[in-house]
Each structure stands twice: as structure tokens, then as C-alpha cells.
Amino acid sequence: MAGSTLGTIFKITTWGESHGRGIGVVIDGCPAGVALKEEDIQIYLNRRKPGQSQYTTPRKEDDSVEILSGVFGGRTTGCPISLLVLNENQLSRDYSEIAGYYRPGHADFTFDEKYGFRDYRGGGRSSGRETIGRVAAGAVAAKILEQLGITVMAYTKSIGPVTIQSFDPETITNNPLYMPDADAAKQAQNYLNDCMRKQDSSGGIIECRISGMPTGIGDPVFEKLDANLAKAVLSVGAVKGFEIGDGFAAATLRGSVNNDSFYYDAQGNVKKRTNHSGGVLGGISDGDTIVFRAAIKPTPSISSQQNTVKKSGEDISVSIKGRHDPVIVPRAVVVVESMAALTVLDALMLNMTANIQGICDFYHK
Amino acid sequence: MAGSTLGTIFKITTWGESHGRGIGVVIDGCPAGVALKEEDIQIYLNRRKPGQSQYTTPRKEDDSVEILSGVFGGRTTGCPISLLVLNENQLSRDYSEIAGYYRPGHADFTFDEKYGFRDYRGGGRSSGRETIGRVAAGAVAAKILEQLGITVMAYTKSIGPVTIQSFDPETITNNPLYMPDADAAKQAQNYLNDCMRKQDSSGGIIECRISGMPTGIGDPVFEKLDANLAKAVLSVGAVKGFEIGDGFAAATLRGSVNNDSFYYDAQGNVKKRTNHSGGVLGGISDGDTIVFRAAIKPTPSISSQQNTVKKSGEDISVSIKGRHDPVIVPRAVVVVESMAALTVLDALMLNMTANIQGICDFYHK
Amino acid sequence: MAGSTLGTIFKITTWGESHGRGIGVVIDGCPAGVALKEEDIQIYLNRRKPGQSQYTTPRKEDDSVEILSGVFGGRTTGCPISLLVLNENQLSRDYSEIAGYYRPGHADFTFDEKYGFRDYRGGGRSSGRETIGRVAAGAVAAKILEQLGITVMAYTKSIGPVTIQSFDPETITNNPLYMPDADAAKQAQNYLNDCMRKQDSSGGIIECRISGMPTGIGDPVFEKLDANLAKAVLSVGAVKGFEIGDGFAAATLRGSVNNDSFYYDAQGNVKKRTNHSGGVLGGISDGDTIVFRAAIKPTPSISSQQNTVKKSGEDISVSIKGRHDPVIVPRAVVVVESMAALTVLDALMLNMTANIQGICDFYHK
Amino acid sequence: MAGSTLGTIFKITTWGESHGRGIGVVIDGCPAGVALKEEDIQIYLNRRKPGQSQYTTPRKEDDSVEILSGVFGGRTTGCPISLLVLNENQLSRDYSEIAGYYRPGHADFTFDEKYGFRDYRGGGRSSGRETIGRVAAGAVAAKILEQLGITVMAYTKSIGPVTIQSFDPETITNNPLYMPDADAAKQAQNYLNDCMRKQDSSGGIIECRISGMPTGIGDPVFEKLDANLAKAVLSVGAVKGFEIGDGFAAATLRGSVNNDSFYYDAQGNVKKRTNHSGGVLGGISDGDTIVFRAAIKPTPSISSQQNTVKKSGEDISVSIKGRHDPVIVPRAVVVVESMAALTVLDALMLNMTANIQGICDFYHK
Fold first, then answer.
1. Which of A57, A159, B83, D16 could be bridged to A50 by S-S, CB 3.0 to 4.6 A?
2. C77, B11: Cβ pair inside 8 Å?
3. How far from each other are the two terminal CA atoms of chain B, in whole angstroms?
4. Contact list, B160 vs chain A (CB under 8 Å)
């Protein structure tokens, strides 16, 4: 099955395993004329790189991106953009032990069941390194969105039981957990320190805001904008839930509370007094900020003892060796942001044929 | 934009508005040889019909389905199956008032923004009647899943603040809210009675269990089984959140708790001691029951007074006339079940080419 | 397998068998705001109706189309347009004989091999009636193309050995064979009369011209405009070949002859002195008239005696009963025209995101 | 627009320009467990390499392929296979002259019209080097087809006016033109020598035979096997026509001649006495050898003088410099073969869900 391609017009195809030759992505359908250089992409990749703080794995990976095609004279040509990140030290370790058993919470077992065997080196295709392709493509999408006045911003909303109580965008990049609340960030670090002492890991919640969205983006039935955001975000490993606007809380509300009233602002534009909807009504953007959240499970690789099975038929107890992230939420922030950028851009491009007038105007008739 | 088609192999295309000539679906890619008659589909449609209890709109709609193609001699032929439900009394009302303003919580405004105008009669394409096509197709998918030993069962987990405390599958169809806990069902009815007295509405949560799933279904990257379930479920109007397994709760857990241990059962099969994963690991089914939840917002149509705007430029206050569902959760149960069935069946069909051995066996070489 | 959907943005899904309840098509992705009424479509359907002359089957089929959805107040809404043509007298005949053997040149055998059985009534899904959905959708596409100044015109280039020697567009609709050369039309009728006397049938060639095409439409690699035209046209039953511009003749030419020279016309536009290319260079429209041809095989249903097999295991000799078209070319003209219109429209819509400037202009930033 | 992806299950995405960093392809949906090494692919690439004879460009390009992902322990893993061919000497020439004018018969003009500018170095994305990705992927497809007993074999049927009169498969690789008729090959070489002396080029026809095909492959409506072959073959640059079986000749035949009679062979299998159909009936394989032809136009790059225009607004006369293939037919043989292999394999994979019995058997229920 072909499951490594996403998007209808702005279409990306990712490839690569954690310990193969490299990781890459082909972006097809990128409009011509976008100024693009490797640094534009590298900035995004650096945000997901390991080793940024004590709360991420200290593994050394430079993740330098190279543009192999689709850019000429500093601008995209409209032809596929192939981006490559070579893996370093991919032969450096002995994976023979991990090859024989199934790590709890990982996809080792399901890969074997599906394909008959698996590339067991460091997670293979289901490694977190798979997200490199997503982020590289997301950086390109974000460049285009910027030209349309659209900003996608994700951050950490909670780590384990610690949730932000305030929102200061400046603070996000001032703490290693990408939280917009300095106090919560401190508490969360304390919580994580405790997890690490206990050889355990933590989950958390990422929130994402898309501002500057035009109205009318997304489709009414299966291709609802929120449905596509949900798919894009749930397709990231470790994500176990998605909600938009009030999300699960809306289930407990009454209609009189949950409905957002419309009004005309001073410029005569239709606005909503509240944003319970999260910026989408009937699958279509309503002009308000799109707000959604993703639930991230705790890192499954922990060094405390766990029960599992060997492929050869025995029950065993294991401790996952290696240096793993005690929490992947901070590094996943830019991944969620990228998935949102890709989804929104594709919807914007698809929307251009919604009305015959727009088509006629385009072709000057 | 073409947003009314879902699926890669088992592909459905729905059409129709609430007050047009009818509602329909074309199922393309249904395998030949499936025994199918109209009653198989009607049973599912009856579960979403209005007028089943005091908690659903008392509108009279028979929703009789007709098979127009793709079935010959009582069996599917492998060619597209066209299913039609004619609308009754579609000309019976004056919609001129609703035509002029934007109902809060509805897609009136976003449709106008996207398309320039809208079919304002009773919600048009964004009406709940749009789900008829989904349910009709879901009934066909469920027939096929049955032959593979797979059962999809959805039910109401909560109504407003009232959540089930026990699970008795027999109870589900014994109360008008489709809750598997008789006590909770009673409390929920009391809660709804209160909502209705206050001319208000309620949201709730639907849970769905898919049992009998083979291992290995779903894909590792963008086409993760849970990502596709999320999209399918979020594509249903009024759904604001999706979670699988422990979902948002997993964000608060530690890895040592959230990981499911593997063991060998008496028959030598790999099993998990717990099911925090919700039956999916790395986007691929792990053989356990798939468990997910959908958050449903309160019905936006309420008769209590609300502020909104007229298209012509004035702020107004309105009370939505007509007889609406005080809660759509009970009627949405079969819709969620249908979306799950469609998603799982498509994934099962796509999975058949995962391994060269399976292909060679199929072609007898 | 789902093989009844065509197109990426302007997407059609057809359904129906020759002797089921009816034939239909769902058009998804049609832009909102297109004026559309049933007569617009009926005009196209009438061109493929049987009984127009002695050279088409005298069967009586009205093929009246009904718009079931997607049009409100005389304009398309942007939501799926469901079109229905009910079959008449679909129970009128005994098909038990044909059920038992495989008609030479038909798909009876291959359907049985693929699906295990078939709807044997009058060809089922592989009947020529399947093209009704194509033509109905093609009529809608043509309406939109008209607004963009694009005209698609097909006609008969040859019938058996008789090929047109001149081209007068006025003549096309003045003879029952839709040939633009009155003399050739007469010779072709003589030829067909002879075929009919001998209980035999004839093939022919349809040529199609698309004028008014903007430059730049189509994609450089797999989605070349000519490749998509080829697929669309070859997907019509009985078509055995496709060529664009000089086509197969180009294989015999030298580059110095086949290359079209560019020059600037008086208005300063780049033009070609010749059109060997057929209006497409590198898969992209070059602004010249697109010219392609489709080879149509002779009608396989003939009443002269043929050898074949019964499904039950015997070799037999048969004479196909019923009143069949001695040549399907004239009725296929509008089908080819429709497939071209659908293909070109989808390419035009896809082209709108080719350049970032166009996207920015669209969103007024 | 995203036009560099082909296939539904066995899906390939190509990228790269003639003078960028390299050319590549990502194969997604390849079944796990296929033995694959770089040599398997290199053999195919060597067949399209330049410099094989005096009738191909003497440019030196090694076109060494590297497998970057998707293969582990010598077998495919079911994950995307990324194949890379680095370009050599990509900076070696001054393209400033070619940058300013439009070469006749090339896509320079249409690229500029579509995208606003182009990568003018050696043809960029529309260079013949783009086919490297197709051939690399085709080699993988062919490996799988081999396991299913299916062989795809293409060869040169004609060069300019010289057509084969006999068919000896052994001869194909014994002459530089890949013709199965040694006498014709000699005449064709004489013809080409004359073309080259006149600084001109030649077209030709490639024929392809697919043997060992099971019956029942392909779909009845838009996804007819022959329609997909047509699209795949026409998507190769320079192809101007496609025909299957009798093709254009069928247009001149009568039904009594063109119909293939069925009979039972000694083993009780249904066979056809002739193969006018070319192995496909109603879009579905009939068990006979699939035979199709592709018309290739003469190489547009010729060194004799041609008229054209500069982008800056002047009419000029040019002679295309550089050393070009006087005919691309011999090098295109393996490209056509690859496109056929890719198309047939995807259809075989899609066919596995045609009947419920096959699905139930697969899942052992």
C-alpha cells in the first residue's frame, strides 16, 4: 500500500528509515516562483533536531537538508522539489537484540504482522526521524502561507499533568519545552526531572493556532478542513487525539453556550463574538483563528523494566537501552505546525475553483 | 472542489441536499458476489431516522432506500452501486426568512463566503440529511466486514455531563439514547428534558468498538488506520474531537503506565495485557479491539433567542423555528459506526498487497 | 476496484447498467454559479440517442435527464450534481440465451473471469448506454468551457475505408454520419448500406478539435494533457487507438518537417507556422488548436454467423439477435467530445495553482 | 499542480532535471519481501543510457543508481523505495544562448507560459533524462511481474519509413536499433545514416507485448487496462500516438473480420482464434498477449537551420548545438516497456479485491 503521500494539489511523498542512507521528501505541486533556499528549510529542521536540551535525546544528528531539484535561480520552478537529509552514523550500533523482541508501545509487532519482517534498526520507518520529511515540506508550505498572510504557530499546552495557565507568545521560544507560560514551563521541567529519575517518560498536549485564514477554505463533506487537519495530525506517530475549538469540552456544553454569535464589526465584516468553533463551521473556515489540539502519548522507549515477548516465542522482561527523549512533545511542536501548514495550503489551493467567477477572472474572460 | 468522495478502493460518493429531490450515494469498488438487498440497508437507515423518540425531531421522513444499480440476482456485480433516498415534502415550507440571516453554529455564513450563495432550504448540503448516504454505504461495508468476522459497534458514552459508568451491550438498544448503561440513560434523559424545557440543546460523546480486526491493517505514515478513522469521523458534521485508546488521557500518563505489555496466550498468539493503544500501534492494527471516541457539539438549532446578522448588513436577534433534535448524539451513533466500517473495510482491501507472498498466492504462482 | 470516477478537481462518477433502473452520473467539484438547466444536458444526450437515422439502432430510448441535486435557483451550488436517466422497458426481453454464451468482441467473457458472474442483460455495465453518464457530465463541462471561450468539436473523419477529403463545419450536422464532407458522407452511407446487407458492421475514425485553449494547460510528466486525453478517449468502449497532431504519421517524418516553427504575429504573440504538434508541446497546451483522433472498431454485435463458446463448455455458432448499430461512430462523436471537454476542464482548473503570483492575486495579497 | 506521481497502489513519484543534482524516483506501495539489489535496476538503466551506438548521443552519463531506502537485508520492506541517480558534469556548459529562445518541437515555450520561467539547462524537467525515474521504477515492477509469470517485451517496429517484416526475438538485442528483423535493422541504419548526414532526425514506432497475463485484469469504465496503458505511454515525451491490437487499422475493418472467435482448447480453457483485440476486451485482459504500439516523433533537436523566436521579441534562425540522438526510438524502447510494466502491475494489485471470495480467502475466513 502506498501510504507515504499526502495532499491533492500540494502533494508530498516522504521516504526513509532512521538507519538507512537518509530521509527525504518530494514536494510535487509547489507553485513556481517561490523564493526558496536551504536555510529556509533548515530553520524548521533545527527545531525538531535532538540535543536541544536535557529533555531531548542527546543523540547527535545534524539533519542538514539539501535541495536536489525543483529550484532554479533561487526560485521554485513548479517541478518536484526533492529534499534530502543524509543519516549520520547509520551503521554505528548493534541492533541484534532489539531485532528479536517487540518493544511495548512501538510498532515492531504490527510491522512484522503486516510485512512479514521489518527493518529493526532504531525503529526503521516508524522512527521519529520519519518526521524530517514532514517538517522539511512544512517549511516550504509555511513560506507560501506567509505570502498569503497566514501564520501557523504551535506550542506545548501541557506536559503530563502540568497545563499552561497563561499565554505569552514571546515565552514559547524562551524555554526548552516551548510553553507560552514561564511558570508552567518550570513546573513541567520539575515533573520531567522526576520522570527521568524514575526511568520513565511523559506525554503532553500541543496546541496550534492558524491566524490570517481567509473565509471559505475547506469543503462541506468528506474534505472538511478540520477533518483533514485531524488526519494530518493523527498521522504523526504518538498522537492519540485531536480536537478543534472547544473539542471534547463541547460535548458537555449546551447549544446556547457553544454557539458563537455573529455581528458586524466597524468595517462591516461579519465576525463571531466567541470562538467555540475553533475557526471552522461546517468544515469551512469562518475567518476566525483556527485552534486545535493534539494529544501526545508518553515516549514508549523507557529504560525501566517492562514485560514483552520475543518473536521466537518466549515471554521476557526488557529495559530499552539507548538515550531516548523523556518526552517528545517539544520536538513534536514543529511537526504539528508543519502538518497544519501542509493541510491548510492544500485546502487554499483547492479552494481556487470553488466559483465560476474566480475561474473566469483567472483566465481573463 | 470535489469533496464528496471517500476511500481508495471501496470508494463512496455522496450527493444531495435536505430539500432537493433526494439524497444518494454511489459505492464504487464494492467486490462482486456480496448478497445485498434493500432491507440490509434500510435497517441502518432506520437507526438514523427522525421521530424515534422524544429526543429526536418529530419530523416525518421515511427514508426508504432504492438500489438503482450494481446488484443483479441479489448479489453485487462489482460495478457501482447507486443508492437513492427520495426526499419527501421537500417543497413544504417557506425558507425565505432563514435565507436572509446566518444561523449561529451553522455553515450558512461559510457556504456564502465560499460559493457566493447557498441552497438555504433546511441546511442544504450541510444538513444532517447528508449523512444518509454515509449510513447507506456503511451498511454495505458492514455486510462485508461481517463475512470477515469483524463487528463495528458504536453507542453513546455521554450526554452533556452524564457519562456511562457501566457497559452492557444488551442495554444499548433498550433506551432511546443508545447508552449501554441504563442508569446513565435515565439521568441523561432527565438532563435532556431540562435542556428542552429551556429551549436549549446538548452535546455528548460517542464511543465505537471494532472487534475481530486482523493484525497488520493500516499503513505506517500518512495512511495510519487511526488517522483515517479520525478524518472519517471528523468529517461528520458536529464532531469536534476524536481520540483513540486512552486518547487525551494518555497525555497525562507516564510511559510505564501507558505502554501495553505483550505476552503469549495459551494458543501461542501475541496479545497485550492492556489496551491503552486502542488497538492500533504505529498506525497499524495490533489485533486488539479498536476503541475510539467522537465528541459531538450541542445541536446549534435552538429556539431560545440568539444574536446574529442578516446578510443584508444588520445585527439581529433570532429564535430558530422548526422542530429540531435537542441532541443529535443518538442519531449520530449509526453515522459514526458507518464511517468506521467504511474506513476499516478500505484499509483491509488496501492491505492485501502488503506482501509479495500474498500477491503470488492470489495469482496461484 | 473503483474504476467509475474520473478527474481530480472536476470529478465525475458514473453508474448504471443497460437494463437496470437507470444510468447516472455524479459531478463533484463543479464550481458554483454556473447557469444550468436540464435542457443544456438534454441537447447533448439527444446527439447520442438511438434511432436518429437508419445507421443507428432503431431502439426507442428517450434518455430524459433529471437533475437531482447541486442546482438551486438555476445555478450550480458547488455541491455534487446528481444526474439521472431512467431506463425504459428494462424488463422487456428474455436474455436467457445470451446469458449462456460469450459474444465475440464483447466483454462477456472478461467480466465473468473478473467478477465470477455478470449482469448479462444487454451488456450490463459494458453496454454503450454507460456513455450516457459521460455525455451528461460532458455537457456541463462544455457549458463552463464556453464561458472561457473554449470550444470542443468532434466529427467523423472516416467510416471504414471512406475518409473525408474536405472540411466544412456546417456540413457536420447535415448528414447522419456527422462528417464534414458531404461527398464522403454519401460514399460512407453507400459503404454502410453494403455492410448492413451483409449483416456486417463497420469501424471508423473520430477527429476532435479544441479551439480557444489558453497556453500553459497540462503538466510536464505523467499528467500531460495529451496523455490524459488519450486515457479519457481510450476509456470509451470500442476505441482502439488515439493520436494527437500528426500522430502515427509523425513516426515516418524527419525532424525538420515535423518541428513547428515559432514566429511573432502582428499582435506580438508567439505562434506556430504549422501544427504538427496538435496543440501540445511537452504535455502542455501551446495555444494552437488541439487536434486528436480516435480509432473506433466495428460494432461487435453482428447478425451474421460467428463461432464462439458456451460458458457450459461447448463450442457453438451464433447469430447475435436484436437490432444493433451497424456503426457506432456517429453516436460516439458526442461521447469523444464529452471526454475531451471533461479532460480539458479538469486541466484548466488544476492549472490555476501553477504560479505563486496567480495564487496571491486570487487571495488579494 | 502535482503531476509527477503515477499509480494507485504501486505508486511512483519522479523528480529531477537534466542538469540539477540528480534524477530520482520514490516507489511507494511496493510489496514487502521482493528480492532487490541495485544491479536489478542498473540493467534496465543501462538499456536507456546514451552512447550505446552511433545512433544515440555520444554524451557520457553513467547513470549509476543507488537505493536509499525501503530495502533491508536484500529484500523490499513494504516502505517507500527511494532511488537516486546523480547527474554528472551538470555545470559543464553555458546555456545562456538556449535560455533566450524557444527551440521548435520542445517544451521551452509552454514551460515559460505555464510557470513564468523555466530551468533552461538542457531541457530541465522536460529532458529525456526525466525517464530515468520511470525506467528505475519499471525495473522493480518487472521483477515482481516475473514472479507472477508475466513478461513485458518492447522493441522497435519501425524507424522512419522502414518497418519490420519478420519477428525474431533473439535479434532484438543483436542490433543497435532493437529491431526483431535483421534486414529491416540494416535498412533502418542506412536511413538513419542519411538523416544524420542531412543534420536531420527520424521518428519511429515501438511495439510492446505483454505475455503471461491472467484474465480479468483492468476495470470496465474509466480505468480500462488499455486506457491506462495509453496514458502511461503518451506521458512519455515524444510519443504522439497509441494503439492496441489492430488499432487504427480496426477502423477500416468489418465486424466479421475484427471479432475474435472464442473456442475451447484441449485443456478446456477459453481461447481466441485471433488477437485483433490485442488482449483486452471491455478494458479487461482476455488472457491473450497484450500488444500495443507507440508512435514516436522525430527528435526535435536538429542541427540544421530552423526558424523560431527569442523570448525578447525577435524572430530568429537557429541551429541546435550539442550532440543529440538522431532518433530516440531505440533508447525509448525500455521506457515504453517500463511504463507498461508499471501499469500492468498496478492493475494486478487493484484486481485483488474484485470478488468477495478472494478477499475472504485472503483473510482465511
1. A57
2. no
3. 43
4. 251-254
3-state SS of C54-91 is CCCCCCCCCCCEEECCCEECCEECCCCEEEEEECCCCC
Q: Do C115 and B14 touch (CB under 8 A)?
A: no
- Residue D232 has a pLDDT of 98
Query: Among partner residues B110, B254, B287, which is closest to A215 by beta-carbon distance?
Result: B110
Q: Is B167 left (phi over 0), alpha (psi -120 to 50) or beta?
A: beta
- Taking residues D202-215, report their average pLDDT: 98
Name the stretches of chain C with pLDDT < 50.
none
Q: What is the mean pLDDT of chain B?
A: 94
CB atoms D352 and B350 under 8 Å: no
* Nearest Cα residue in chain A from D10: A2
Closest to A131 in 3D by CA, of A240, A7, A45? A45
Give the pLDDT confidence of B147-169 residue by residue, as tens digits.
999 999 999 999 999 999 999 99
Contacts of D117 in chain A (CB under 8 A): 32-33, 72-73, 75, 77
Q: Cα(D331)–Cα(B265) distance, rounded to whole angstroms?
A: 58
CATH for D325 = 3.60.150.10
Q: Dig out the grid coordinates for D151 from the structure.
A: 513478461
What is the structure's pLDDT at A58? 73
Identify the chains in contact with D, defined as 3+ C-beta pairs within 8 A. Answer: A, B, C
Which pLDDT score, from 0 to 100, does residue B51 have? 77
**DSSP H helical ranges for chain C:** 38-48, 96-100, 108-115, 131-147, 182-197, 225-234, 255-258, 329-350, 356-362
**Average pLDDT by stretches of 10, chain A with 365 residues:** 91 96 97 98 93 78 94 97 88 74 96 94 90 98 98 98 97 96 98 96 98 97 98 98 98 97 97 98 98 98 94 93 87 98 98 95 84
What lies within 8 Å, CB to CB, of C173 at 6+ separation is: none
The alpha carbon of residue B347 is apart from the nearest alpha carbon of chain D, in Å, by 12
Q: How many domains does chain B divide into?
A: 1
Percent share of chain C, pLDDT over 90: 89
* Chain B adjacent subunits, 3+ CB pairs under 8 A: A, C, D
Selected for mutation to probe chain D from A11, A38, A67, A82 (highest D CB count within 10 Å) is: A82
Q: Report the residue of chain B nearest C77, measured CA to CA.
A: B118
Assess contact for C89 and C28: CB atoms under 8 A. no
Mutating which of C9, C11, C12, C13 best tests the B interface, going by the most B Cβ atoms within 10 A?
Answer: C13
Domain interval for residue C14: 5-363
- Which residues of chain C are within 8 Å of residue B91 when distances are taken between CB atoms? none
Cβ distance D5 to A22 less than 8 Å, yes or no, reads: no
Residue A261, exposed/middle/buried by CB under 10 A (0-12, 13-18, 19+)?
Answer: middle
Q: How close does chain D come to A15, measured CA to CA in Å?
A: 5
CB A218 within 8 A of CB A158: no
Which positions in chain D touch B357 (Cβ < 8 Å)? 33
Q: In this predicted complex, what is the ipTM?
A: 0.97
Cell representation of residue C259: 518541428
How far C34 CA lies from chain D's nearest CA (Å)?
24
pLDDT for res C98? 83
Number of Cβ pairs < 8 A linking chain C and chain D: 393
pLDDT digits (tens, 9 = 90+) for B196-232: 999 999 999 999 999 999 999 999 999 999 999 999 9
pLDDT at position C91 is: 56
- Residue B236's pLDDT is 98
